[in-house]
Amino acid sequence: MDLHSEMILDEYREKRPTFEAISKIVGEKLNAYVAQKGMMVNAISTRIKTEKSLAGKLERKGSKYRNLLDITDILGARIVTYFNDEVDVVSDIVTQNFDIDWENSVDKRKLLDPDRFGYLSLHYICRIPESMYHDPERPEINQFRFEIQLRSALQDVWATIFHDTGYKSDFDVPREHVRSMNRLAGLLEVADNEFKNIRDSLRTYREKIHKAIFEKRYAEVQLDADSFKCYLETKPFDALNQRIAETHHLEIQEASSTSYLFIFHKIGFKTIEDINQMIQTCSEDAYRLANAQFAGKDLDIMASTVGLRNLCNVYLLHQGKGLEGLIWLQDVIYGKRPSNEELAKRLFDKASAIGIGSVSNQEV
Question: Quick count: other Cβ atoms within 10 Å of Cβ 90?
């Protein structure tokens, strides 16, 4: 290494605390800006070039740099998004908040020929503007440039694999490996686009089911995790719960009902309309059964799943599933345990006493 490069390396050692301060500011700000945007990203990271790495860079091309200020990648930050179209969203965040050195920034997504595949990433050379952070005693925080790389998770996979090969360009790669590397890049690019298409399709589907449920077109909505979650947002079991709670002067404590999706599938429900019909036909008996359970008990609180649980109890009894059906339901709700049979027996006896359901014992 020549004397000029040694002087730059000495300057790096002296200024390393400044780069550590810049790294902290950039990391915190990027996380805050992404959070304010309401985005979820795969990763936000920063790194400072090691002395060994900088020494190697200076040995190769130290003559092109006048001083440390000329080197733009001492500090690097990276934002990895889940989907490739989110790179442009994050790009707006970066350009709106940092000072950009446009002459040295590069969008490598636009550099490849249409028939080529490879490294896709957006690189900005930035400074911290004084409007973001300023310390008169450390003006260099606003003077040193740094790099922010933006890419999707699959683009990051490709970059990592390519970097780990130790090659800087196709000209360094043995010809027999070039084709394999390009095929891999092409596959990752296709996968990137397909993941985005799947996400967009799911969004469209969710918007469709939300609209159908809001308009109470329940028969059109297949019963699945998304539709059931959306249906629960309409509070379909609240009326029954309120009626039970008011009768027994109980406070309702919220509890998750999402696990009942498995129960509905097991008893053969196909659409949201099946749940709606259960509510219409079983609510009165579910209210009566709950009254029988709470009678004579000194309670202050009931779970918000009480109404739904009794709807399921009554539905199985209406379907002639009898005691065996109630045992099965308790096993699903509470997990298999010896006490479930006794609990189901008490429920069955209370239901029989008030004339609910059938006395047959068919299997679910």
Answer: 23
List C-alpha distances in Å: 347 to 243, 294, 303, 326.
20, 12, 17, 8
Taking the C-alpha atoms of residue 350 and residue 317, their distance in angstroms, rounded to an integer, is 12
Listed residue (242, 355, 241, 248) closest to 296, CA to CA: 248
Element containing residue 301 per DSSP (H, E): strand 301-303
| Class of residue 182 by CB neighbours under 10 A (exposed 0-12, middle 13-18, buried 19+) | middle
Q: Which pLDDT tens digits describe the chain residue by residue (364 residues)?
A: 788 889 999 999 999 999 999 999 999 999 999 999 999 999 999 999 999 999 988 988 878 889 999 999 999 999 999 998 899 999 999 999 999 999 999 876 554 444 444 456 789 999 999 999 999 999 999 999 999 999 999 888 877 776 655 455 445 566 666 667 777 777 888 888 898 899 889 899 999 999 999 999 999 999 999 999 999 999 999 999 999 999 999 999 999 999 999 999 999 999 999 999 999 999 999 999 999 999 888 889 999 999 999 999 999 999 999 999 999 999 999 999 989 999 999 999 999 999 997 544 444 4
Helix (H), strand (E), coil (C) string for 81-112: ECCCCHHHHHHHHHHHHCEECCCCCEEHHHCC
Amino acid at position 184, single letter: L
Q: Taking a C-beta distance cutoff of 8 angstroms, is the pair 266, 364 a contact?
A: yes
The segment(s) of the chain belonging to CATH 3.30.460.10 are 3-152
What is the rounded distance in angstroms from the CA atom of residue 193 to the CA atom of residue 84? 7
Measure the CA–CA gap between 19 and 13, rounded to whole angstroms.
Answer: 10
Does domain 3-152 fall under CATH 3.30.460.10? My reply is yes
Task: Report the predicted TM-score, pTM, of the whole model to 2 decimal places.
Answer: 0.68
For helices 175-214 and 225-232, what crossing angle results, to 10°?
40
